[in-house]
C-alpha cells in the first residue's frame, strides 16, 4: 500500500504545477502490475474546449494508443486518480479493461470544495466488484483536498453546463 500512497501523493504534487499552467483540477495515471507508468494525463476540458477530456479518459486513451488496443484487460493495469471518478469516467474505466482503481478525494468532498457535479453514481463500488474491478478509495485525502482548494483559490473555473 505504501507504493500506492506514494503514487497518489506524487500525482497531487504534480497537479499543483499543472493547475498553474491551465490544467486540472484532476490528474490520472495508469500503471502496470510492476508499477511501470503506462500513461498519465490531466484534465483538459477547458484547455481543449471538450467536455469529454477528463483526466481518466485522456489517460485511458493514451494507454490504449501506446498498447495499440482498446481492450486493456490483458495488461493487469491500475488507474490512480487524484479524485473519485465522475459518472462519465466510471463508464470509461469499466469498459477499458482496467483492473484496479485507486483514488484520493471522494466525490462528496470534490462537490463540497469545487461545486463540480460528479453525477449520479449509486453503488458503483459494488458494480465494479461484480465486474472484478477492485476499488481502493480515499488515499491521502487531506493532500488532495488542499490541491482542490488551491485550484479554487486561483480563480479557476469549474466547468459544468449552466442549468
Summarize the structure.
With 163 residues, this protein is of the alpha/beta class. It is built from seven helices and five strands.
How would you describe the overall organization of this protein?
This protein is an alpha/beta fold. It has seven helices and five strands; from the N terminus they run αββααβαβααβα. It has helices at 2-19, 45-48, 55-67, 87-96, 107-114, 124-130, 141-153; strands spanning 27-31, 37-42, 78-83, 100-105, 134-136. Strands 2-1-3-4-5 form a five-stranded mixed sheet. Helix 1 runs parallel beside helix 7 (141-153) and helix 5 (107-114) packs parallel to helix 7. The model has no long low-confidence stretch (mean pLDDT 93).
Key traits:
5-stranded mixed sheet, alpha/beta, single chain, 16% strand, 163 residues
Strand and helix map with partners:
Elements: H1 2-19, E1 27-31, E2 37-42, H2 45-48, H3 55-67, E3 78-83, H4 87-96, E4 100-105, H5 107-114, H6 124-130, E5 134-136, H7 141-153
Parallel strand pairs: 3-4, 4-5
Antiparallel strand pairs: 1-2, 1-3
Helix pairs in contact: 1-7, 5-7
Radius of gyration: 15 Å
Q: How many β strands by DSSP?
A: 5
How would you sum up the major sheet?
A: 5 strands, mixed
- Give the overall average pLDDT: 93
Strand content: 15-25%
Structural class: alpha/beta
Shape: globular
> What's the helical proportion of residues?
40-55%
Distance between the termini: 41 Å
Uncertain residue ranges: none
Element-level helix/strand string: HEEHHEHEHHEH
**Spatial order of strands in the largest sheet:** 2-1-3-4-5
Total number of helical segments? 7
